[in-house]
Specification:
The complex is a heterooctamer, with 2 copies of chain A (385 residues), 2 copies of chain C (292 residues), 2 copies of chain E (89 residues) and 2 copies of chain G (194 residues). Chain A is α/β, with parallel strands linked by helices. Chain A has helices at residues 16-27, 41-50, 64-76, 87-103, 130-135, 151-168, 178-182, 249-264, 267-270, 289-304, 322-329, 345-353, 372-384; strands spanning 10-15, 31-34, 57-60, 81-85, 107-115, 121-125, 144-146, 171-177, 184-189, 233-235, 273-276, 283-287, 309-314, 316-318, 334-339, 358-363. In chain A, the strands form 3 sheets. In chain A, strands 2, 3, 4, 5, 6, 7, 8 and 14 form an 8-stranded mixed sheet that branches. A 5-stranded mixed sheet of chain A has the order 11-13-12-15-16, with helices on both faces. In chain A, strands 1-9 form a two-stranded antiparallel ribbon. In chain A, α1 runs parallel beside α6 (151-168) and α11 crosses α12 (345-353). The longest helix of chain A is centred in the middle third of the chain and has 18 residues, at 151-168. Chain A is globular and about 70 Å long. Chain C is an alpha/beta fold and 292 residues long. Chain C has 2 domains: 9-258, Thiamin diphosphate (ThDP)-binding fold, Pyr/PP domains (Rossmann fold), CATH 3.40.50; 261-292, no CATH class. Chain C is globular, with a radius of gyration of 21 Å. Chain E has 3 helices and 4 strands. The two termini of chain E are 26 Å apart. Chain E is of the alpha+beta class and 89 residues long. Chain G has a 6-stranded mixed sheet with strand order 2-3-1-4-5-6, sandwiched between helices. Chain G is of the alpha/beta class. Chain G is globular. In chain G, α5 packs antiparallel against α6. Classes of the chains: A alpha/beta (385), C alpha/beta (292), E alpha+beta (89), G alpha/beta (194). β9 of chain B pairs antiparallel with β2 (34-41) of chain G. The complex binds thiamine diphosphate (2 copies), iron/sulfur cluster (6 copies) and magnesium ion (2 copies). One iron/sulfur cluster binds at residues 23, 28-34, 56-57, 75, 77, 79-80 of chain E. One thiamine diphosphate sits between chains C (54-57, 73, 97-100, 124, 126, 128-132, 137) and A (35-37, 64, 88-89, 92, 119). Chains A, B: One of its GO terms (molecular function) is oxidoreductase activity. Chains A, B: InterPro entries: 2-oxoacid_oxidoreductase, PFOR_II, Pyrv_Fd/Flavodoxin_OxRdtase_N, THDP-binding, Transketo_C/PFOR_II. Chains A, B: Residues 22-248 form the Pyruvate flavodoxin/ferredoxin oxidoreductase pyrimidine binding domain. Chains A, B: Residues 281-375 form the Pyruvate:ferredoxin oxidoreductase core domain. Chains A, B: This is 2-oxoglutarate ferredoxin oxidoreductase subunit alpha.
Amino acid sequence: MKRGPAVLTGVHFINGDVACAEGALAAGCRFFAGYPITPATEIAERMAERLPEVGGTFIQMEDEIASISAVLGASWAGVKAMTATSGPGFSLMMENLGFGYMTETPCVIVNVQRGGPSTGLPTLVGQGDMMQARWGSHGDYETIALAPSSAQEMFDLTIAAFNLSEKYRLPVLIMSDAVIGHITERVIIPPEEEIPIVNRKRFTGPRETYLPYLPEDDLVPPMVAAGEGYRVYITGLTHDERGYPSTSPDAQERLVRRLAEKVRRNARDIIRLEERGMEDADVVLVAYGISARVAYRAMELARAAGRRVGWLRLITVWPFPEERLRELAARVRAFIVPELNLGQIAREVERCAAGRALTIPVLRPGGAVHDPREILAAIEEASHV
Amino acid sequence: MKRGPAVLTGVHFINGDVACAEGALAAGCRFFAGYPITPATEIAERMAERLPEVGGTFIQMEDEIASISAVLGASWAGVKAMTATSGPGFSLMMENLGFGYMTETPCVIVNVQRGGPSTGLPTLVGQGDMMQARWGSHGDYETIALAPSSAQEMFDLTIAAFNLSEKYRLPVLIMSDAVIGHITERVIIPPEEEIPIVNRKRFTGPRETYLPYLPEDDLVPPMVAAGEGYRVYITGLTHDERGYPSTSPDAQERLVRRLAEKVRRNARDIIRLEERGMEDADVVLVAYGISARVAYRAMELARAAGRRVGWLRLITVWPFPEERLRELAARVRAFIVPELNLGQIAREVERCAAGRALTIPVLRPGGAVHDPREILAAIEEASHV
Amino acid sequence: MSEERHPLDHLLRADRLPHIWCPGCGIGIAMRCLVLALEELRIPLDRTVVVSGIGCSARVAGYVRLDGFHTTHGRAIPFATGLKLANPDLTVIVFSGDGDLAAIGGNHLIHAARRNVDLTVICVNNFIYGMTGGQSGPTTPLAARSTTTPYGNFEPPFNLPALVAASGAVYVARWTVFHVRRLITALQEAITKRGFSFVEILSPCPTGYLRRNKLGDALDMMRVFKTQSEIRHGAPPAEVGIELGKKLILGKFVDLERPTYHERMRKQLAAFFIEPYVEKVSEEVEAEEVES
Amino acid sequence: MSEERHPLDHLLRADRLPHIWCPGCGIGIAMRCLVLALEELRIPLDRTVVVSGIGCSARVAGYVRLDGFHTTHGRAIPFATGLKLANPDLTVIVFSGDGDLAAIGGNHLIHAARRNVDLTVICVNNFIYGMTGGQSGPTTPLAARSTTTPYGNFEPPFNLPALVAASGAVYVARWTVFHVRRLITALQEAITKRGFSFVEILSPCPTGYLRRNKLGDALDMMRVFKTQSEIRHGAPPAEVGIELGKKLILGKFVDLERPTYHERMRKQLAAFFIEPYVEKVSEEVEAEEVES
Amino acid sequence: MSVEPTVHTPSRAVRRPRGRVFLLTERCKGCRFCVEFCPRHVLAMSDRFNSKGYHVPAVIAEELCTDCKMCELLCPEFAIYVVRLEEER
Amino acid sequence: MSVEPTVHTPSRAVRRPRGRVFLLTERCKGCRFCVEFCPRHVLAMSDRFNSKGYHVPAVIAEELCTDCKMCELLCPEFAIYVVRLEEER
Amino acid sequence: MSRWEVKIAGFGGQGIILAGYLLGKAAAVYDRRHATMVQSYGPEARGSACNSQVIIADEPIYYPYLTEPDVLIAMSQEAYARFAPEVKPGGLVLIERDLVAPDAGRLRDEGPGEDTVRLYALPATKIAEELGHRIVANIVMLGFLCALAPIVSPSGMREAVRSSLPKSAIELNLMAFEAGYERGRLSRSADDRV
Amino acid sequence: MSRWEVKIAGFGGQGIILAGYLLGKAAAVYDRRHATMVQSYGPEARGSACNSQVIIADEPIYYPYLTEPDVLIAMSQEAYARFAPEVKPGGLVLIERDLVAPDAGRLRDEGPGEDTVRLYALPATKIAEELGHRIVANIVMLGFLCALAPIVSPSGMREAVRSSLPKSAIELNLMAFEAGYERGRLSRSADDRV
Ligand SMILES: Cc1ncc(C[n+]2csc(CCOP(=O)(O)OP(=O)(O)O)c2C)c(N)n1
Ligand SMILES: Cc1ncc(C[n+]2csc(CCOP(=O)(O)OP(=O)(O)O)c2C)c(N)n1
Ligand code: SF4
Ligand code: SF4
Ligand code: SF4
Ligand code: SF4
Ligand code: SF4
Ligand code: SF4
Ligand SMILES: [Mg+2]
Ligand SMILES: [Mg+2]
């Protein structure tokens, strides 16, 4: 049945959703369970077409809860797995997303954000789920969330997301948006051998010695798959290194701290940023997703008008690049944060700025991207304070 | 069928969950739809017993999603309605909670927090859902969340929650925890006539003039119930004042901004705090729920040791009391924030402190409350910096 | 040959017409049948509520001039349950699509049927997810193409009448948008039936289903409805599954008496509340040892 | 009269015994029947997986010495579906409670049956939510007391065999924890059956159900199982609903052949992939006008 | 084929009902249901477009219309309806 | 009540299987299933408690045991099991 | 004393939580004082260790956990072993005689000293069985406690029993209370003290 | 010119998005330039206004929306009315002759001036119908465009058509392209210019 290449090396003109699906296939994803929802549906549709070509499995489940559950199950079968959705479906996934963090199950969840809250603006852009990505499931945990800004990045970051998820054993989120999901652009898919692939650490020692939740130095425990004979017991209850449930506050402390620490301690490895004009900037635009591209235009306009403006694009949104923001806060006058929400990442920027630099959110709740001139106005404002 | 008094005036020795149910009945709640989950089950159980006595309706639904949906439906039938759950169920409610904000449906949702993430520690305490309360549903919105610290407050704040929800037309959250839900204490229920009750503004004008989403000065539109002849159309899509769907970014701007502003502008009316020792404090403990009571003990110990410690208890957690925190940050040395999570409200404190005061989180991921001496140690630390 | 008002405009939000449905979409016909059924029934329309989930079919709640609730995907039934339980005087009609009611909302469907809450659930079965652009769903026939079954569907569809009947529905019927008069009668029966009633309406989706499956346009589907249907009232629900190439079995399959949720509730509660209220240690206090 | 190891300890996580179940709880018996069934079947246990949701019954996944997944409440079946689809060589058994599988998980149950995924679903029906302390559920008999039906339950329970049969299950049986030998045979049949099989196991919950309903202790319930049961293989599923005071109908109700999900998939896909891969504008590009 | 005895009310028995067809052209989306399923072939598709570019039907033989309302009932757009004419005497 | 013809294999036909009962007392929770459903009344509840305070059964007539394993099969606790004795010759 | 910290500990099913509840209720509702009770139990549905912590005071109680219990009622060996060492010097330890074997060491009352407690043993279960049902052993213990320490008024306890239990159970429980109380009054001078 | 901004606008079902896609693909894949396309459409499944915005450039394109279109292809009156005023002075406006009636005003080319555009009209639908199916009117327009402005190479366009469409449709679409292209070449001097 394997008839198509997994890696479509070459130059393409495809939209972000399709690029995301191709990225997943290139990363080795062989299982997709999903449920249609605008503007993420094309990811599922592409996977439905392509997975059978490469011997993988596509299934449309009865809802998003079933979708993420099936993805977690597939991951424990040893297969790289993904689902894709938008706000309403993302909300439904929250409980089982938490199960993914608790059981340290590698997988990738794509959220192509539309205008919210609720059904909101199904076909139009929004970035209102950024904080939900961090805090949407109950209990405390750390996550990794990447925000692509182009169709090319929908491809690239999907690979990165799989690699991070395999490396650190957790669900990794791709927080895209309706514009980036539907924008059609040149996407260059490199030859298969040039694509770096990370696979989960596998335990291959004798059965008797295997402790499913005994971490190594990087705080990540090696993994096995169901059916390999290790007879693991995996539970969403607080558990000890054997995986057995425990109700001791100590076990909770050890487990939950480690889940957070494995992300925090490796933040440098995880965080990616793109910067422009930082050398002389006294005002810095902080943005992500489509807003970063709009902000770029505002920077061009501002620089043309003689303003010393820098541009910081968050590719990794979570863990939040605190360190870099704190550094910058010490030497710039203001951060300008254009977002398609009521101010989410702006709060993080404000926290890290710690009063040393001003934080100016430029907000729209979605439906359309900013007019670059709105951002320009904020630059002007900041340049005058 | 109405056989029992709705308001059980008198002195009781009951646990927080039972007090919560009694508070709901006293507030006029006549509909409860829920699904069992430790440690919130007793709220449902008490409602199952009590609602039929007062002519109300209790139904156990097939899951938490159905529960919150039924609650929203009941509210649109003109009846005060509530549900109660804990972390996993709260996560499942996120999508339809957003529908409640979008459609401005008054109702109360109780979350008796246990240790998370995932199934975690079902019987043990946690406070890991505080940020989820603010950010758990997709899209951007403002919410109101109250954090009771005693069985008495489970009663009092449930009434307050209903009143706020009716006044501002939105789902109001009670963010309790396993200790407060299960602690059994003296609860004094006042005579019925001493309980202040707020009911939603009703529209009673002629049908033709009714615009379901035309706000008044307080930004809250008057409400009608299904069956009253107004023939409303209520949708979770972005809508105009008629309630009709609209895909214009303008409609989004107007609606979503107003949903946030009606909470923000009325923050003073909504926010409740309890303070001690603030006159001379140079270190302030900021806490809520059971942790506030533990912190109180730490304050006593510290004061006995000559430390000038203040105690700020967040009764309203969302909207966050930014103003008060900023005021205090200008004159105290440090905030100490003990929480049963990895640092959630501490981030908000840090943001508001804006570098002017230190923020010292004292964290446990749940399973047990702090030893007051852990907090004391932080006070000592803060007093020496 | 042109005049301002359609005779049904007073029952519609005519200011929202033309509606968003595609040329040839059958949902508009289903909506008219509902509206006509209601008009003829002469029940108080001020107390009649239409609740829907999300989907093309679900848009009906926004076009009828009744209280209309366009809830979230799959949740029309529990929302309607809350409405009905909180105000039993309402006539509560759920109108939504096959995906909404039977995929994401399937659990609510069977539980509401089990409870026998007095609701009327009208399900437009167009064999596809229309609104999101033609993905397969739990009613898509075997081998059919959709955007998520590019190689043909290999998941057998639900037989919805059998499913709701096994769950406890007291009235179950199936018609097509071609069978307008019978459909109107069925809707009236369903609405007046005490308890959980279910009407499946087969409807063409030229955009999402027919085009992709080379089944012609909506008119062709209407011809199929006209010529390939067989009316078999009382057919055992298990035997009315829809299979490509076979006759479509239509009719009223279930119509039986069973106490409704409210009836059972009243009866059960009537035995209590003879004594005045006494505070007691509810067994909770002793149920110290529970978990999860 | 005492020795170190029980002959089944090698199939259990004996280091976790005694288990958490109450004295007289039937789940332990059901678990043994599963373990014995597996042992006798001689299928490779290294490739046998038990998936559960949350509840007392769901704890089985943590006591059998197999790969065990204790997932979230209600989601065992979709998790199991992912496992099975990603690795068809696994034998995937879902073991959970009535509330888990039929209340919150009801939708997954019917959809998995519809798809006929090759899973074995074992449902311990103890008529109650045990783990949370005795709330009513979708299998609680009419009039029964529970902490959430203090005045007696007035929601009719599901007839689970009828529900899963109407959804498409190819094997459906019901036994009690008293009928251990027959139960073992049924489990073996269910596990070896290709497609979606379902075994309902009636089991006493003295703590959450019997005590509150003055039905005596677990032993009394076992006596009821022994004396009040009637074995009727092949009984029409619609006729096996459980009613208080009537005979419990046990037996194998459904055992039929229908292509499994994988079989249908392979057949459907086999017709394709004759030509090499060509990038085409999938119809998405033209599906410009979709929403929600 | 009625087997009931016919009561002769001469002025009515021979008359059949007649209808006048109205079209709200701007609502029509040209699905042709009304044309196809009119049992009397009263309607046909015309060359005319409405402002959205849809072909709309035309009444080609109104005198044949029996006011059966099939067209009205089957129109998904609420675009066509029939009014019964005063009976011709 | 077997109606099949009996084949005489003298040394075996007259012997019935026998079992020895083992109890893991610390696992037992005293449910009495084994006692109640032993067809040969081999077991009875004793006065003994285990360390969790549960009454445990005692073997009162092991010689009657036919190794039918009913006790073992019905024990929810994996606390009782039966080993077949060498057949007596 | 204006503040009492009481721990009642044993197994699930022994009525540990109910005992704490009744004690607190007597104080809060009938003696009109402040009272809190928090409870703790294991994951098992039955039979795991559990305890309740009751604080009774004239002031509002913020921190609801015991820092140094004034009283321990131990209904199992495990409970005794775990919690007896925490009891405040000079505090009171009541044990179910047939289930708990006290150790030597600090617990013997060898005259008032820094590190001693007052230890009393009562065959509460046996007394309860004699009254009709072992389930009321917890109430026997409460009666015993009431007589040995002025924590709550006996009348308050009786009211708490009356207002909290199902009608059919009230008489038996009151009898249990009186039986325990009587033994306590005797014990104040007699040899129930270990 | 190193940067082109093109807007194609009309109704859902006219192949507006496909036209934008093919244009972008020709540029990105076959001419090896940078290209982006964003699209916009209404809530209806069919028949609502829709448009696609294509930018083609030698540099990476950050901001993917048109600021001042160089080219507008208007396939409906509504599209023309809404978007024609945005076109850059000196820009190109192509209309479907049978569906769009251009107004007088700035759009007439009255000699090169500040506020003028070049307007061409083509009966693309009619041409398409003559070729066999009105569905290819969009491709006719693309051919027309290719001849009138050096946005993408005609060979790139042909490749884009070949690689993007189902086999059965390629020939018709290529014919449509050539027909439009031919008309465009003629028009450069002739009277298709309005
Ligand atoms: C939680 C959630 N998931 C997915 C969607 C996207 N969605 C909207 S409608 C729909 C399917 C509608 O299909 P159906 O119910 O059959 O209605 P139709 O459009 O065919 O009438 C889907 C998947 C959504 N709005 N919310
Ligand atoms: C989302 C969610 N809701 C509720 C719960 C609480 N909960 C745990 S088990 C259970 C019911 C279990 O009942 P059943 O499946 O019948 O299993 P039993 O304990 O009776 O064997 C519930 C409601 C949960 N863990 N997660
Ligand atoms: S997509 Fe299908 S169901 Fe939706 S409006 Fe169009 S024809 Fe109707
Ligand atoms: S509560 Fe019921 S189901 Fe759970 S272990 Fe106890 S007896 Fe078994
Ligand atoms: S009313 Fe009947 S006869 Fe007249 S036009 Fe309509 S369908 Fe034809
Ligand atoms: S049925 Fe209605 S929409 Fe269809 S052609 Fe006739 S008038 Fe137009
Ligand atoms: S094996 Fe059979 S006969 Fe022997 S003790 Fe057990 S149940 Fe009784
Ligand atoms: S069946 Fe098992 S648990 Fe029950 S009494 Fe016998 S040995 Fe003990
Ligand atoms: Mg559909
Ligand atoms: Mg159960």
